[in-house]
Structure formats: structure tokens, C-alpha cells
Model the fold of this input.
Amino acid sequence: GAKGWIKKDDPYRFMNWIMFYNMYGKKYGLTLLKEAPAEAKDIRCGTDDKAQLVGTINMPQKINLTAIKGNWALVSVLDIDRTPKTGYVRWRSNNGVKYYFPAMR
Done:
């Protein structure tokens, strides 16, 4: 809960979450965090919790990030069954809890 100042002259020293995910998530893909709820595995056709369900992430081999729109990420997933799935997943909750993180090496 501490507050402080940052020097923002170098864009690579400080990034907001959207910039961070767009840079590293697109490069390395995403990984589902262990604490994520089951709903975070749902792939939907739109950026709404009521949008049609396209599929579910079971055991992903790779989650490729295409774009971020609010709390939703457009991804292409190659699951263990080798069937590619494309759609939106909720990458963070409405109160900012992250469900996915860039799979940085």
C-alpha cells in the first residue's frame, strides 16, 4: 500500500499492465496462474461473461496473446488435444486480480 514517485522518462523502466502484457505476453505467450478460478479457463466469443462459450482451456501447451481489451485477452490456445481454440479469456478480475501472466523465460 505504499506510494511513491517514479521517473517516467524511460518507457522500459515503468510499464502499466497493458503495456507489460502486450510486450511480453505477445512475445512469450501467457500462462494460467494456479490460483485462477475455473471461469478463467473459459474461452468466449466476446468480451462479456455472458458471451457464448467457445471452449475451455484444459492442459494448454501454448497460449498465444493477440490483443487485450479491458479485462479480456484475445488468445489462441493449443491444448493437449492439439485442437486450436481462439477467443477471449478473462485475464484479470474486475478488481485487478490477475489470472494469466506472461510466460517469461
Q: What stands out?
A: The chain has a mean pLDDT of 90. The first strand starts at residue 30 and ends at 32.
